[in-house]
Amino acid sequence: MKYLEKGVLQESKIYFYKCSEIAQELFFYPICTGNFKCDSNYKVIRNNYSSYLFLYVLKGDGFFYNNNKKIRIHAGEFVLIDCYKPHCYGTDSNWEIVWLHFDGSFARRYVELCTTKNTINILKNNPVCIHNIKQIYNIFDESKTISEIDIFKRILSILAEFIDNSACSDNENISQNIIEQSLFYISENLSNNISIEQIATNVCLSPYYFSRIFKKETGYSPHEYLVLSRINKAKYLLKTTSMPLKEIAISCGFGNACNFSVAFKKINGNTPLVYRNENSNFDK
Questions:
Q1: What is the Cα–Cα distance from 22 to 24, expressed in whole angstroms?
Q2: Are the C-beta atoms of 12 and 6 separated by less than 8 Å?
Q3: pTM of the full predicted structure?
Q4: Could you tell me if residue 67 is left (phi over 0), alpha (psi between -120 and 50 degrees) or otherwise beta?
Q5: Collapsed DSSP state (helix, strand, coil) of residue 40
Q6: Is 101:89 a contact under the CB 8 Å cutoff?
Q7: Per-residue pLDDT tens for 65-79?
Q8: What φ, ψ does residue 49 adopt, rounded to 5°?
Protein backbone atom coordinates (compact mmCIF):
# COMPACT_ATOMS: atom_id res chain seq x y z
CA MET A 1 0.00 0.00 0.00
CA LYS A 2 1.01 3.62 -0.51
CA TYR A 3 2.00 5.55 2.56
CA LEU A 4 2.09 9.31 3.03
CA GLU A 5 3.93 10.83 5.93
CA LYS A 6 5.93 14.03 6.19
CA GLY A 7 9.10 13.55 4.18
CA VAL A 8 7.98 10.24 2.61
CA LEU A 9 7.69 10.48 -1.19
CA GLN A 10 4.75 9.24 -3.26
CA GLU A 11 6.42 6.10 -4.66
CA SER A 12 7.07 4.69 -1.17
CA LYS A 13 5.32 1.53 0.03
CA ILE A 14 4.47 -0.06 3.37
CA TYR A 15 2.90 -3.42 4.30
CA PHE A 16 1.44 -4.48 7.65
CA TYR A 17 1.13 -8.04 8.88
CA LYS A 18 -0.92 -9.81 11.56
CA CYS A 19 0.92 -12.96 12.59
CA SER A 20 -0.56 -16.22 13.84
CA GLU A 21 -0.71 -17.11 17.53
CA ILE A 22 1.96 -19.78 17.00
CA ALA A 23 4.32 -17.27 15.39
CA GLN A 24 3.67 -14.80 18.19
CA GLU A 25 4.48 -17.45 20.76
CA LEU A 26 7.46 -19.19 19.11
CA PHE A 27 8.92 -17.18 16.23
CA PHE A 28 10.32 -13.83 15.26
CA TYR A 29 7.58 -12.25 13.18
CA PRO A 30 7.15 -9.13 11.01
CA ILE A 31 4.90 -6.30 12.10
CA CYS A 32 5.37 -4.08 9.07
CA THR A 33 7.90 -3.62 6.30
CA GLY A 34 8.44 -1.02 3.63
CA ASN A 35 10.52 0.70 1.01
CA PHE A 36 10.67 4.45 1.64
CA LYS A 37 12.09 7.19 -0.52
CA CYS A 38 12.40 10.29 1.64
CA ASP A 39 13.44 13.92 1.47
CA SER A 40 15.03 16.06 4.17
CA ASN A 41 11.71 16.41 6.04
CA TYR A 42 11.69 12.75 7.10
CA LYS A 43 12.32 12.30 10.82
CA VAL A 44 10.88 9.75 13.25
CA ILE A 45 10.79 10.60 16.96
CA ARG A 46 8.98 8.19 19.28
CA ASN A 47 9.07 7.16 22.93
CA ASN A 48 7.97 3.61 22.10
CA TYR A 49 6.81 1.54 19.15
CA SER A 50 6.76 -1.92 20.80
CA SER A 51 9.06 -3.56 18.26
CA TYR A 52 12.61 -3.77 16.94
CA LEU A 53 13.66 -2.21 13.67
CA PHE A 54 16.02 -3.35 10.93
CA LEU A 55 16.82 -0.42 8.64
CA TYR A 56 18.91 -0.76 5.49
CA VAL A 57 20.03 2.32 3.55
CA LEU A 58 19.82 1.69 -0.20
CA LYS A 59 20.75 5.20 -1.31
CA GLY A 60 21.67 8.51 0.29
CA ASP A 61 22.38 8.93 3.99
CA GLY A 62 20.71 9.76 7.27
CA PHE A 63 21.11 9.38 10.99
CA PHE A 64 19.92 7.71 14.16
CA TYR A 65 20.62 8.34 17.82
CA ASN A 66 22.60 5.92 19.98
CA ASN A 67 22.90 6.81 23.70
CA ASN A 68 21.92 10.41 22.87
CA LYS A 69 24.67 10.60 20.25
CA LYS A 70 23.79 11.34 16.63
CA ILE A 71 25.26 8.66 14.36
CA ARG A 72 25.47 9.07 10.60
CA ILE A 73 24.43 6.12 8.43
CA HIS A 74 25.14 5.82 4.72
CA ALA A 75 24.24 3.73 1.68
CA GLY A 76 25.16 0.08 2.24
CA GLU A 77 24.79 0.27 6.01
CA PHE A 78 22.35 -1.77 8.06
CA VAL A 79 21.21 -0.70 11.53
CA LEU A 80 19.30 -2.36 14.38
CA ILE A 81 17.19 -0.06 16.58
CA ASP A 82 15.37 -0.99 19.80
CA CYS A 83 12.05 0.80 19.36
CA TYR A 84 10.84 -0.21 22.82
CA LYS A 85 13.13 2.58 23.99
CA PRO A 86 12.88 6.26 23.00
CA HIS A 87 14.33 6.51 19.51
CA CYS A 88 14.96 8.94 16.70
CA TYR A 89 16.09 8.44 13.10
CA GLY A 90 15.69 10.08 9.73
CA THR A 91 17.48 11.95 6.98
CA ASP A 92 18.52 15.60 6.70
CA SER A 93 19.22 15.25 2.97
CA ASN A 94 17.49 12.32 1.24
CA TRP A 95 17.61 8.55 1.29
CA GLU A 96 15.96 5.35 0.15
CA ILE A 97 15.55 2.66 2.80
CA VAL A 98 14.18 -0.85 3.15
CA TRP A 99 13.04 -1.53 6.70
CA LEU A 100 11.34 -4.10 8.89
CA HIS A 101 9.67 -3.76 12.28
CA PHE A 102 9.66 -7.17 13.99
CA ASP A 103 9.15 -8.78 17.38
CA GLY A 104 8.97 -12.18 19.06
CA SER A 105 8.83 -13.76 22.50
CA PHE A 106 12.62 -14.26 22.46
CA ALA A 107 13.49 -11.08 20.57
CA ARG A 108 14.56 -9.08 23.63
CA ARG A 109 17.20 -11.64 24.56
CA TYR A 110 18.57 -11.77 21.02
CA VAL A 111 18.76 -7.99 20.75
CA GLU A 112 20.63 -7.87 24.06
CA LEU A 113 23.17 -10.31 22.61
CA CYS A 114 23.56 -7.97 19.63
CA THR A 115 24.41 -5.09 21.93
CA THR A 116 27.59 -4.42 23.88
CA LYS A 117 28.51 -1.33 25.85
CA ASN A 118 30.70 0.08 23.11
CA THR A 119 28.93 -1.32 20.06
CA ILE A 120 26.94 0.84 17.68
CA ASN A 121 24.62 -1.57 15.92
CA ILE A 122 25.69 -0.90 12.33
CA LEU A 123 26.77 -3.49 9.77
CA LYS A 124 28.39 -2.29 6.55
CA ASN A 125 27.73 -4.00 3.20
CA ASN A 126 26.71 -7.25 4.89
CA PRO A 127 25.37 -9.51 2.09
CA VAL A 128 23.45 -11.82 4.46
CA CYS A 129 21.49 -8.99 6.05
CA ILE A 130 20.89 -7.18 2.76
CA HIS A 131 19.64 -10.31 0.99
CA ASN A 132 17.27 -11.34 3.77
CA ILE A 133 15.64 -7.97 4.39
CA LYS A 134 15.09 -7.53 0.65
CA GLN A 135 13.59 -11.01 0.42
CA ILE A 136 11.21 -10.33 3.30
CA TYR A 137 10.09 -7.07 1.71
CA ASN A 138 9.67 -8.74 -1.71
CA ILE A 139 7.41 -11.43 -0.21
CA PHE A 140 4.93 -8.70 0.69
CA ASP A 141 5.53 -6.45 -2.31
CA GLU A 142 5.00 -9.30 -4.78
CA SER A 143 2.03 -10.74 -2.85
CA LYS A 144 3.76 -14.07 -2.39
CA THR A 145 2.51 -16.73 -0.01
CA ILE A 146 3.78 -15.85 3.44
CA SER A 147 5.65 -18.58 5.27
CA GLU A 148 6.10 -17.51 8.88
CA ILE A 149 8.84 -20.10 9.35
CA ASP A 150 10.74 -18.74 6.35
CA ILE A 151 10.49 -15.16 7.65
CA PHE A 152 11.52 -16.35 11.12
CA LYS A 153 14.65 -17.94 9.63
CA ARG A 154 15.51 -14.77 7.73
CA ILE A 155 15.12 -12.54 10.79
CA LEU A 156 17.18 -14.99 12.83
CA SER A 157 19.88 -14.96 10.16
CA ILE A 158 20.09 -11.15 10.33
CA LEU A 159 20.26 -11.21 14.13
CA ALA A 160 23.03 -13.80 13.98
CA GLU A 161 25.12 -11.39 11.88
CA PHE A 162 24.66 -8.66 14.50
CA ILE A 163 25.50 -11.07 17.32
CA ASP A 164 28.65 -12.15 15.51
CA ASN A 165 29.65 -8.52 15.00
CA SER A 166 29.03 -7.78 18.68
CA ALA A 167 31.16 -10.76 19.74
CA CYS A 168 34.02 -9.47 17.59
CA SER A 169 33.71 -6.07 19.23
CA ASP A 170 33.81 -7.68 22.67
CA ASN A 171 36.95 -9.59 21.72
CA GLU A 172 38.57 -6.41 20.44
CA ASN A 173 37.76 -4.59 23.68
CA ILE A 174 39.13 -7.47 25.76
CA SER A 175 42.33 -7.57 23.69
CA GLN A 176 42.74 -3.81 24.01
CA ASN A 177 42.44 -4.01 27.79
CA ILE A 178 44.98 -6.84 27.92
CA ILE A 179 47.48 -4.85 25.86
CA GLU A 180 47.00 -1.70 27.92
CA GLN A 181 47.60 -3.60 31.16
CA SER A 182 50.64 -5.34 29.69
CA LEU A 183 52.24 -2.14 28.39
CA PHE A 184 51.77 -0.47 31.76
CA TYR A 185 53.26 -3.49 33.57
CA ILE A 186 56.27 -3.48 31.24
CA SER A 187 56.87 0.27 31.64
CA GLU A 188 56.72 -0.05 35.42
CA ASN A 189 59.17 -2.97 35.51
CA LEU A 190 61.83 -2.12 32.90
CA SER A 191 64.60 -2.22 35.49
CA ASN A 192 63.50 -5.64 36.77
CA ASN A 193 64.36 -9.02 35.32
CA ILE A 194 60.78 -9.75 34.21
CA SER A 195 59.84 -12.67 31.98
CA ILE A 196 57.09 -13.25 29.42
CA GLU A 197 55.53 -15.65 31.92
CA GLN A 198 55.30 -12.89 34.52
CA ILE A 199 53.72 -10.44 32.07
CA ALA A 200 51.19 -13.08 30.98
CA THR A 201 50.38 -13.99 34.58
CA ASN A 202 49.71 -10.32 35.30
CA VAL A 203 46.82 -10.39 32.79
CA CYS A 204 45.73 -13.92 33.77
CA LEU A 205 46.66 -15.61 30.48
CA SER A 206 48.92 -18.45 29.45
CA PRO A 207 52.26 -17.28 27.95
CA TYR A 208 51.36 -18.84 24.58
CA TYR A 209 47.93 -17.21 24.28
CA PHE A 210 49.21 -13.89 25.63
CA SER A 211 52.06 -13.86 23.10
CA ARG A 212 49.62 -14.44 20.22
CA ILE A 213 47.35 -11.56 21.29
CA PHE A 214 50.29 -9.23 21.95
CA LYS A 215 51.84 -9.91 18.54
CA LYS A 216 48.53 -9.43 16.77
CA GLU A 217 47.75 -6.13 18.48
CA THR A 218 51.22 -4.50 18.56
CA GLY A 219 53.13 -6.12 15.70
CA TYR A 220 55.89 -7.14 18.14
CA SER A 221 56.45 -10.24 20.21
CA PRO A 222 56.44 -9.49 23.97
CA HIS A 223 60.22 -10.05 24.06
CA GLU A 224 60.83 -7.70 21.13
CA TYR A 225 58.70 -5.00 22.71
CA LEU A 226 60.39 -5.41 26.09
CA VAL A 227 63.86 -5.04 24.55
CA LEU A 228 62.77 -2.02 22.47
CA SER A 229 61.29 -0.36 25.54
CA ARG A 230 64.51 -0.89 27.46
CA ILE A 231 66.58 0.48 24.58
CA ASN A 232 64.35 3.55 24.29
CA LYS A 233 64.73 4.24 27.99
CA ALA A 234 68.49 3.79 27.67
CA LYS A 235 68.63 6.20 24.73
CA TYR A 236 66.83 8.81 26.81
CA LEU A 237 69.31 8.37 29.67
CA LEU A 238 72.27 8.47 27.30
CA LYS A 239 71.05 11.74 25.80
CA THR A 240 70.02 13.53 28.99
CA THR A 241 72.30 12.26 31.79
CA SER A 242 75.93 11.51 32.52
CA MET A 243 75.14 8.16 34.16
CA PRO A 244 77.85 5.51 33.56
CA LEU A 245 76.93 2.82 31.03
CA LYS A 246 76.90 0.17 33.77
CA GLU A 247 74.28 2.07 35.77
CA ILE A 248 72.16 2.66 32.67
CA ALA A 249 72.38 -1.04 31.81
CA ILE A 250 71.14 -2.04 35.27
CA SER A 251 68.40 0.63 35.43
CA CYS A 252 67.09 -0.55 32.05
CA GLY A 253 67.01 -4.22 33.02
CA PHE A 254 69.98 -5.50 30.99
CA GLY A 255 71.87 -6.78 34.03
CA ASN A 256 75.32 -5.73 32.84
CA ALA A 257 77.05 -3.39 30.40
CA CYS A 258 78.03 -6.18 28.01
CA ASN A 259 74.47 -7.39 27.42
CA PHE A 260 73.36 -3.78 27.13
CA SER A 261 75.98 -2.94 24.46
CA VAL A 262 75.18 -6.04 22.37
CA ALA A 263 71.42 -5.38 22.41
CA PHE A 264 71.88 -1.66 21.76
CA LYS A 265 74.16 -2.15 18.76
CA LYS A 266 71.88 -4.82 17.29
CA ILE A 267 68.96 -2.40 17.22
CA ASN A 268 70.67 0.95 16.60
CA GLY A 269 73.70 -0.06 14.58
CA ASN A 270 76.18 1.61 16.92
CA THR A 271 77.34 1.31 20.53
CA PRO A 272 75.81 3.20 23.47
CA LEU A 273 78.98 5.29 23.77
CA VAL A 274 78.89 6.37 20.11
CA TYR A 275 75.21 7.18 20.43
CA ARG A 276 75.87 9.31 23.52
CA ASN A 277 78.69 11.22 21.85
CA GLU A 278 76.49 11.99 18.84
CA ASN A 279 73.27 12.82 20.68
CA SER A 280 73.89 13.89 24.28
CA ASN A 281 72.12 17.04 25.47
CA PHE A 282 73.60 17.41 28.94
CA ASP A 283 76.50 19.72 29.75
CA LYS A 284 79.76 17.82 29.67
A1: 5
A2: no
A3: 0.62
A4: left
A5: coil
A6: no
A7: 887 888 999 999 999
A8: -130, 10
**Is there a contact between 35 and 12 (Cβ–Cβ < 8 Å)?**
yes
Instruction: Name the amino acid, one letter, at 41.
Output: N
Q: How far apart are CA 212 and CA 220, in angstroms?
A: 10
pLDDT for 284 beyond 60:
no
Of 83, 92, 97, 73, the C-alpha closest to 53 is 83
Q: Lowest-pLDDT range, 39-53, 144-158, 163-177, 230-244?
A: 163-177
**284 burial type by CB count under 10 A (0-12 exposed, 13-18 middle, 19+ buried):** exposed
Task: Check the CA dihedral 251-257-263-267 and report its sign.
Answer: positive
Q: How many residues does the chain have?
A: 284
Burial of 25 (0-12, 13-18, 19+ CB in 10 A): exposed
Query: Is a pLDDT exceeding 60 seen at residue 119?
Result: no
The rounded distance, in Å, linking the Cα atoms of 192 and 254 is 9
Handedness of CA 118, 124, 128, 132 (dihedral sign): positive
DSSP 71-83: EEEETTEEEEEET
Torsion of CA 156, 157, 159, 161, to 10 degrees: 160
Paired strand residues for 86: none
